[in-house]
């Protein structure tokens, strides 16, 4: 079986381990599937994230364990050349939101997010890539090449219900919620850094597609905080040899989650080329969107791009991770003022939880004098990239949000600050409650003395 992703990390898996039956075909991909030891932690409803689809249905067929069983059945039938297009496999994967919780919370660390990417890539090779998938996966190219057209189309669709219903009928994009709208202007770095910047050295800010085109004020706030902290902020930009020097860099996350592996590899190659000098100089690279930055630190390994991936991963930090590290190791002290706000609610993005970043988030928030907050004990918000925008998944998306996130938000007073670093999370919170959540960079900027 030819795979689209690099599964060599699983080459030695199964040697001396009590695997529960490695499938007959699939090579190292089959080994990645077979790490499941049937502990059924994915069929629990206690604390944590896993497994969002099981939690809303109570049906074991929508758990990680059941998905593993479906893949084993497909990979144990070498005569079925179209196994990845089998409707039974599609049904098993239908409600997987790629939350990454299983890699963190499953005792066997099943990486169903990556398994799903390979599955979708295999299915696309058999059946072709659907138009809706091309639209959602291609956000980096649409925003980078056709920003004005895309912005106009989204605004038109959001303002006229007939157009939203037409898009639902023809494309399967739900008419029951608005699409995120592009900012009036994309992020544009200031021409001059502040005079105080640079005393603590250089950093590179990786402004992802969502911050660049939808929420540029987050990137602007991050720059203000980093410069006040004493860093000279440079911005990630394409390498001189890039075929599209005017299109912003992208981590390729939207392509990965939609199974467009070759496109994801292309975006990742652009990133590696752009950061070659930064890797050599060991310059810290800071990201703002959890799923984007952490994809570079994790999924990049699966794209077969060589040892540079490991070197890059050592220099990648989420905004709050970097600040917390510098505070602990290098004496960083931000001069902050009280914000005179009531106790806030903090919702963690699934990837922040899966990669243990929430500790840094809590640490940095504790620097604001007199500021108190409570972490919402929630699973996935349910938006999960394009999942909540798909007509057939709208109900499931909202059911995930209603597990604990939206009830907690609604129970809070109207002046309670809401903090959520994930773009999808903020969109879901606003749609489900009418309340706006803010990125931690905005809060810290407001607290600068």
Please give a structural write-up.
Helix content is 46%, strand content 6%. With 449 residues, the protein is mainly alpha-helical. The chain has four domains: 8-127, no CATH class; 131-171, no CATH class; 202-238 and 271-329; 344-446. The strands form two sheets. A four-stranded parallel sheet has the order 2-1-3-4. It has a three-stranded parallel sheet with strand order 6-5-7. Helix 18 (319-329) packs across helix 20 (358-365). The mean pLDDT is 94. Residues 87-115 form the 4Fe-4S ferredoxin-type domain. Keywords: Iron, Iron-sulfur, Metal-binding. This is 4Fe-4S ferredoxin-type domain-containing protein.
How is this fold's topology laid out?
Blueprint: H1 27-33, H2 52-57, H3 64-75, H4 87-93, H5 101-105, H6 112-127, H7 131-137, H8 139-145, H9 147-159, H10 161-171, E1 202-206, H11 209-213, H12 216-228, E2 232-235, H13 253-257, H14 261-274, H15 276-281, E3 285-287, H16 290-297, H17 308-313, E4 316-318, H18 319-329, E5 344-347, H19 350-354, H20 358-365, E6 373-375, H21 394-402, H22 405-411, E7 418-420, H23 423-433, H24 440-446
Helix pairs in contact: 3-4, 8-9, 9-10, 12-24, 18-20
């Amino acid at each position: 079986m030819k795979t689209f992703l690099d599964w060599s990390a699983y080459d030695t898996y199964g040697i001396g381990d009590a695997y529960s039956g490695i499938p007959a075909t699939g090579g190292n991909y089959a080994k990645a599937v077979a790490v499941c030891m049937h502990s059924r932690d994915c069929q629990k409803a206690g604390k944590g994230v896993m497994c969002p689809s099981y939690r809303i249905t109570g049906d074991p067929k929508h758990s990680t364990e059941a998905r593993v069983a479906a893949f084993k059945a497909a990979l144990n039938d070498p005569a079925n050349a179209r196994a990845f297009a089998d409707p039974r496999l599609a049904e098993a994967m239908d409600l997987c939101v790629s939350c990454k919780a299983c890699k963190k919370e499953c005792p066997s660390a099943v990486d169903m997010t990556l398994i799903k990417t390979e599955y979708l890539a295999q299915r696309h090779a058999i059946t072709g890539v659907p138009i809706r998938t091309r639209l959602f996966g291609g956000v980096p190219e649409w925003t980078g090449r056709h920003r004005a057209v895309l912005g106009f189309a989204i605004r038109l669709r959001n303002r006229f219900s007939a157009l939203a219903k037409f898009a639902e009928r023809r494309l399967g994009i739900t008419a029951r919620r608005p699409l995120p709208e592009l900012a009036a202007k994309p992020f544009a770095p200031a021409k001059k850094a502040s005079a105080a910047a640079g005393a603590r050295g250089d950093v590179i800010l990786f402004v992802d597609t969502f911050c660049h085109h939808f929420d540029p004020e987050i990137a602007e706030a991050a720059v203000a905080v980093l410069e006040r902290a004493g860093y000279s902020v440079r911005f990630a930009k394409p390498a001189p040899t890039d075929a599209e020097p005017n299109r912003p860099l992208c981590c390729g996350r939207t392509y990965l989650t939609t199974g467009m592996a070759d496109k994801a590899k292309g975006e990742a190659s652009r990133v590696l080329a752009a950061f070659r000098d930064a890797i050599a100089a060991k310059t810290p690279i800071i990201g703002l969107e959890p799923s984007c930055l952490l994809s570079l630190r994790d999924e990049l390994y699966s794209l077969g791009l060589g040892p540079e991936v490991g070197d890059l991963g050592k220099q990648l930090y989420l905004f709050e991770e970097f600040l917390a590290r510098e505070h602990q190791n290098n004496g960083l002290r931000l001069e902050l003022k009280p914000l005179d706000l009531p106790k806030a609610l903090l919702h963690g993005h699934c990837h922040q939880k899966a990669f243990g970043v929430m500790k840094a988030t809590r640490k940095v928030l504790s620097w604001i004098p007199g500021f108190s907050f409570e972490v919402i004990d929630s699973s996935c918000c349910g938006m999960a990239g394009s999942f909540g925008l798909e007509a057939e998944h709208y109900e499931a998306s909202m059911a995930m949000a209603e597990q604990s996130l939206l009830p907690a938000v609604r129970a809070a007073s109207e002046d309670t600050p809401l903090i959520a670093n994930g773009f999808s999370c903020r969109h879901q919170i606003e749609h489900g409650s009418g309340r706006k959540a803010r990125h931690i960079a905005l809060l810290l900027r407001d607290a600068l003395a």
